[in-house]
UniProtKB/TrEMBL annotation:
Stored SUPFAM superfamilies: Class I glutamine amidotransferase-like, P-loop containing nucleoside triphosphate hydrolases
Domain of life: Archaea
Organism ancestry: Archaea, Methanobacteriati, Methanobacteriota, Stenosarchaea group, Methanomicrobia
The protein's annotated pathway: Cofactor biosynthesis; adenosylcobalamin biosynthesis
HAMAP family linked: CobQ (MF_00028)
Record-given protein name: Probable cobyric acid synthase
Domain CobQ/CobB/MinD/ParA nucleotide binding: 7-226
Protein task: Catalyzes amidations at positions B, D, E, and G on adenosylcobyrinic A,C-diamide. NH(2) groups are provided by glutamine, and one molecule of ATP is hydrogenolyzed for each amidation.
Any one GO molecular function term: catalytic activity
Record-annotated CobB/CobQ-like glutamine amidotransferase domain positions: 260-440
UniProt entry keywords in alphabetical sequence: Cobalamin biosynthesis, Glutamine amidotransferase
Transmembrane segments: none
InterPro entries: Class_I_gatase-like, CobQ/CobB/MinD/ParA_Nub-bd_dom, CobQ_GATase1, CobQ_N, CobQ_synth, GATase_3, P-loop_NTPase
One of the protein's GO biological processes: cobalamin biosynthetic process
Length: 492
């Protein structure tokens, strides 16, 4: 069969496009070989496949939901912000260039050709491609250079569903306004609306749904209720707007909930999905650098897209002093650039030396401009004992990936050739992202924290990411006309 495509556009950022695509990928993969696609994603939350190709984590999640191996053609262009108007451009999984916003738009024809080629490759392998737009689709100032909404719509001529977020208010105006502002050649392909994140009785909306359908001739295919997604956050908006500051739901009733983990929320936090897996076993709080650290049982310094600037912000906000006041009594873990900040010194590409937090005997040198990273690599190392929880898994394998943004010198690595540890064993750092995805390490750490706090450790409940996909798919099928979507795409 010829490959069938569907394009999910949104009225705004965080309208829920990613979760809708994830649900559709899961459902359609039961009948067809299905793949996700997003022409361009701006994100510091990337993932590295076994071939060392870097793509946005959002499309990785969608690929896993579809039962497909994530490949760079699913997200041919990734923009990794390095400042307010400057980004590292990743094309088909490889570093391509560093560009300002203006310079990037000058290469838009080249980017369009790349996404066209990526779609052609997906067409060779898959029966269905579920595509996602970015931000709000009706950005009329960007129509001449928008490859991800208008550009994808024109290249593919695919049927379109528009998603509106009712949490933001004005959902009817945003759906109607988006419909009316899109160019006529794209407007004709809009086949349905979905209202997302609704709380309450859907009957209240019925009169408005009828009027919207009469005004546009486009049916409302469903109303998705607000509910807690139990899959990893796919982008920075969904991460930063976590309900309950990232704490686990009360219904989990896991005694480990009394263990509190503080993740420091840098201004340019990256790879934030590294810590979400801990949420099912502990109270994970994402702490803004201007807030009180409180009394956590573990402090995590995450990755950063701009480590030197974020280290400076850490000091100016007073968060650095809060962290240092806990050293020696509270375990601290640094991942990626957070690991580098824990060291003695960081040297910028201009030769300027900045003092780190001084909790680890390491030094980092950035040979290129801040935010630049070498080609990412998958890694597999054996753990060495230096902290109580690492001693429990001595010699066992720990897997992850490294996105090197600076050269780190360490005297006593804890994962063969990576990482460092303090003399008292309370401070640990590693370049390895995906660190907590290792169940052996995660269990050892949580057991240690529970024991240190004097509470019993309870085994994980066995809920998997695939269970999360199935849960999302069931909610979608209950509230959205899936049969209509199949018909829109010309599928049985």
């Amino acid at each position: 069969m010829d490959t069938k495509r569907l394009l999910i556009l949104g009225t705004s950022s965080d309208a829920g496009k990613s979760s809708i695509v994830t649900a559709v990928c899961k459902i359609m993969s039961r009948d067809y070989k299905t793949a996700p696609f997003k022409a361009q994603n701006m994100s510091l939350n990337s993932w590295v496949n076994p071939d060392g190709k870097e793509i946005s984590y959002a499309q990785v999640i969608q690929a896993w939901a579809a039962g497909a191996d994530p490949i760079p053609e699913m997200n041919p262009v990734v923009l990794k912000p390095k400042g307010d108007s400057f980004s590292q451009v990743i094309v088909l999984g490889e570093h391509y260039a560093d560009r300002s916003a203006g310079n990037y738009y000058e290469s838009i024809d080249e980017m369009s050709a790349i996404l066209d080629g990526a779609l052609s490759k997906l067409d060779e392998k898959y029966d269905v491609v579920v595509m996602e737009g970015a931000g709000g689709a009706a950005e009329i100032n960007l129509y001449d250079r928008d490859i991800v909404n208008v550009g994808t719509a024109r290249i593919t001529n695919a049927p379109i569903i528009i998603v509106g977020d009712i949490e933001r208010g004005g959902v009817f105006a945003s759906l109607y306004g988006t419909y009316m502002l899109l160019p006529e050649d794209i407007q004709k392909n809009i086949k349905g609306f979905i209202i997302n994140k609704f709380r309450g009785d859907p009957e209240i909306l019925r009169p408005g749904l009828k009027q919207l359908e009469e005004m546009t001739g486009v049916p409302v295919l469903g109303i998705m209720p607000y509910f807690r997604l139990r899959i990893p956050s796919e982008d920075s908006m969904s991460f930063r707007e976590k309900e309950g500051a990232g704490t686990v739901p009360d219904e989990k009733k896991n005694s480990n909930n009394s263990v509190e983990i503080a993740v420091i929320q840098f201004p340019k936090i990256s790879h934030f999905n590294d810590y979400e897996i801990l949420e099912s076993q502990a109270r994970v709080k994402y702490i803004d650098i201007y807030d009180s650290l409180g009394a956590p049982d573990l402090i995590i310094l995450p990755g950063s897209g701009t480590p030197l600037k974020d280290l400076e912000a850490l000091r100016e906000s007073g968060m650095a002093d809060q962290i240092l006041s806990k050293a020696g009594s509270v375990p601290i873990i640094g991942i990626g650039e957070g690991y580098q900040m824990l060291g003695a010194k960081l040297t910028g590409p201009d030769g300027k030396i900045i003092d780190g937090l001084g909790l680890l005997d390491i030094e980092t040198v950035y040979e290129k401009e801040e935010g630049y990273s070498e080609k990412p690599v998958r890694v597999s190392s054996k753990a060495k004992g230096c902290t109580p929880y690492l001693k429990a898994i001595w010699g066992e394998t720990v897997d992850g990936f490294n996105v090197y943004s600076g050269k780190v010198t360490t005297k006593s690595p804890v994962f063969e050739n990576d990482g460092a540890c303090s003399a008292d064993g309370l401070v640990l750092g590693t370049s390895m992202h995906g660190f907590f995805d290792n169940k052996n390490l995660r269990v050892a750490l949580l057991k240690y924290l529970a024991e240190k706090k004097g509470v019993p450790y309870v085994e994980e409940d066995g809920f998997t990411i695939q269970d999360g996909f199935e849960e999302l798919a069931q909610v979608f099928e209950k509230n959205v006309d899936v049969e209509a979507i199949y018909k829109i795409m010309g599928l049985k």
